[in-house]
Amino acid sequence: MTFGEQPAYLRVAGDLRKKIVDGSLPPHTRLPSQARIREEYGVSDTVALEARKVLMAEGLVEGRSGSGTYVRERPVPRRIARSGFRPPSGATPFRQEQADGEARGTWESNSAQAEASVAVAERLDIRPGDRVMCTRYVFRDAGETMMLSTSWEPLAVTGRTPVMLPEEGPLGGMGVVERMAAIDVVVDNVTEEVGARPGLAEELLALGGVPGHVVVVIQRTYYASGRPVETADVVIPADRYRVAYHLPVK
Amino acid sequence: MTFGEQPAYLRVAGDLRKKIVDGSLPPHTRLPSQARIREEYGVSDTVALEARKVLMAEGLVEGRSGSGTYVRERPVPRRIARSGFRPPSGATPFRQEQADGEARGTWESNSAQAEASVAVAERLDIRPGDRVMCTRYVFRDAGETMMLSTSWEPLAVTGRTPVMLPEEGPLGGMGVVERMAAIDVVVDNVTEEVGARPGLAEELLALGGVPGHVVVVIQRTYYASGRPVETADVVIPADRYRVAYHLPVK
DNA sequence: TCGAATTTGTGCGTATGTATC
DNA sequence: GGATACATACGCACAAATTCG
């Protein structure tokens, strides 16, 4: 019966969650079965089931039919540094950022011309249907896929120049700022809009995740004198990485 | 009984979902009630309930007790600006950022002294068990909860000063940088680490979500001369907001 | 190899509390 | 107040997967 404050299934879920986060139920161990939960907490089958479902929705545990409900492993997310700003070397709080900030690993890409969709056109401040160069990237770090990226550049900017294809020529793979500089486009600003959502099936396939995993999505746009010259969607598995920004104050 | 392929509740949920996305059940309309679903699809009460729960977990509908289950509007995620950097006024690409960057709405908070956990101690570069001032915030924008925040400040920094309690005194609610300036602590750097995960049940209760919804989590730390003076966890519902960073290049 | 026990996942019927209309 | 509808809760049943003797 409802006697106290919150629903019984949340109380049970909360207690189990506490045991998981404080380590008394470490990864790979089995939760008490539904029957055991029923006994231990003095609740019904439905409440025990609902409590497990809460923890499953939170990604803390996974149910294996016929076997049990197991505590998931939660790797410490690594950092991906996103800021051009660098602190004075030797400043103690930033050791790790320096350590893992520049290890970029390997990547693959392929480019194709395309027409700007409505969404891309809006981000690049061009008209839908205008020609753009669309490039897809897969970034790997120590063999593990860590990041997907799709970028769009208006052909009005790079068309008929040596840097039209981001990964070809002497400046291949050099980054947007350097490539644009080569054609006298001075990139001076970048915006990154960070969001998150459940990963799509194809994304999780590429990233090595399982359905239901969360991804962080960054919509990045480079500007030159207030005009967008490149925009990209960056997709990162949220269980393995965090995105670090380092900003000066004022 | 299960005769075909997938569970009954998924079949019902799938049919209702189709009607929602193709527009035959537009936003703000009411779903068939549990009883009606039971009749129309020839299923039990439990199946009808479970089907509604699936749609609620996907954020497509919201249940209002005593009234009905309503199709949600799917808002374009709004921006929350996180950068101190401001572009020269009038620069066209940044109109919206200027427009909604500073509308902070209302908030509530309460503070209590506590001992630093291992995780907090690491972030503040102090010892676990050291005294900290812990403050919880709930931010609202037009009545809707948009953000939860929990901050920790070492009492070694603010103890026995007028700004020990973030929300009291003449500088209450003024922000970390201003408050610290009042006690001659010059905040010069901030790091923000953005991650994402399924929201916890309590968080989603406060944010008006449903178990399984994704939240963006920002771990923010302010530094003064390389020393951490405040750290906070900011929790934002990912379906309604994005976090915008605006960075100078170079 | 077989079978029994366990466990999850799904499904059913019902009852009660409570919010809304 | 009454009717409606959602939210929580109880107890039960069965299929499928797994485990283990």
UniProtKB/TrEMBL annotation, chains A, B:
Pfam families according to UniProt? GntR (PF00392), UTRA (PF07702)
Keyword DNA-binding carried by entry? yes
Q: Which keywords belong to this entry?
A: DNA-binding, Transcription, Transcription regulation
GO BP: negative regulation of DNA-templated transcription
- Keyword Metal-binding part of the UniProt annotation: no
- Entry protein name: GntR family transcriptional regulator
InterPro entries, sorted:
Bact_HTH_transcr_reg (IPR050679), Chorismate_lyase_/UTRA_dom_sf (IPR028978), Tscrpt_reg_HTH_GntR (IPR000524), UTRA (IPR011663), WH-like_DNA-bd_sf (IPR036388), WH_DNA-bd_sf (IPR036390)
Residue ranges annotated for the HTH gntR-type domain, each copy included? 6-74
Taxonomic lineage of the native organism: Bacteria, Bacillati, Actinomycetota, Actinomycetes, Kitasatosporales
* Gene Ontology terms, MF aspect: DNA binding; DNA-binding transcription factor activity
